[in-house]
């Protein structure tokens, strides 16, 4: 009987005890954070935010950056699995290549969160980012506010970054009607390897040579590559004359905006995305339910009909920023420092110090 009672009541409790990882001071939740690179301004910033938030919640965060090397990133993730992480947050260099690492972690029961950039696997626990198609629409609109006719050059992001595909989708939604009408002619359309500013400079130099500087607007996909392109445009006396879009509201990007070179950027408040990632990671580790996720198919997230399955997602809003609202949106919100933006603007032409 006792045996039977034990079987009836204790066994399931024991099983639960075994299933429920006993997190506490002696066994803090271990979060792995795998980062594509540190070349882009935002990634070290978000690593620092996530490290602090994890510590505040008694969790341990181990992070590594892969220097734009997809194979190294997968090796680093495998290493994190061996180190016994309970959950992994991934900023993928290559959304396709990272899928095998997510599936390997899944086989070990380790949930993975794709952060900002999609990993093309339906084994993800969640994909969290900003509305990346709206980023593209906002960029195209920001340029069209200045020029809506003529020769346009398109600078896409890194071809292995699924976000670059979604930015371009949004850009073309806005530009295509004007292209069809013949108002706009796309004279160059290039994608910038690794989102590297130096690559963007070279690409823009070649475009300006090929087009004899007859470029009326540039739809670039982030601040880093836009500022790279502006180097080439500056050398031809076109900086400030030819509108160009960016993204990320970086310090350098916003400074270039108040100096009338970069036309606009897209503000994505990463101070909202990073806490969401840590909260979700801790819940997934504790096998607690996560609210507010909505399923999207891999096909609609990648525009690739050959991909099946879906992923639970959450997307945050984005804000277009130009010279008129950079102070309100980016400086007064504390996203960037006043001095970083206005240091080369004469004192009497600056807005009030924060
Ligand atoms: C994208 C990201 C952008 C931009 C870019 C370069 O995936 O969404 O914010 O920074 O990468 O790293």
From TrEMBL:
**Domain of life, per the record?**
Bacteria
The answer on whether this UniProt entry bears the keyword Signal reads yes
Provide the alphabetized UniProt keywords. Signal
Protein localization: Cell envelope
What is the name attached to this protein's record? Xylose-binding protein
Q: Which residues form the signal peptide?
A: 1-24
Gene Ontology MF terms in the entry: carbohydrate binding
Q: Which Pfam families match?
A: Peripla_BP_4 (PF13407)
PANTHER family assigned to the protein according to its UniProt record, in alphabetical order: D-XYLOSE-BINDING PERIPLASMIC PROTEIN
Pull one GO CC term from this UniProt entry. Answer: outer membrane-bounded periplasmic space
Record-stated family: Belongs to the bacterial solute-binding protein 2 family.
Task: Give the Periplasmic binding protein domain ranges.
Answer: 31-288
Organism of origin: Desulfopila aestuarii DSM 18488
Keyword match Endoplasmic reticulum: no
